[in-house]
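debug: dumping io for the single-chain case to check the tokenizer round-trip. Nothing else runs in this session.
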Amino acid sequence: MKKDIHPNYREVVFLDTTSNTHFVTRSTINSRETMEIDGVTYPLVKIEISSASHPFYTGKKIFLDTAGRVEKFNKKYQKAK
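debug: decoded output
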């Protein structure tokens, strides 16, 4: 293998700022911030959404009133016909 061409693949902490949960995984992403977990210091990457806060994975989906929106659209553009 060639030297100095491979990225720095190491353990990194991803912090979901919405739900304030974190998980440690391996990544090549760079970060200036760090976080200490169980006495080990990891690079910290803050994210806004993950499986801990995404509505699809948490089961907290918001359903839109699509019937009301369709009726409103038809009412608005019925005059154009």
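debug: round-trip ok. The mean pLDDT is 82.
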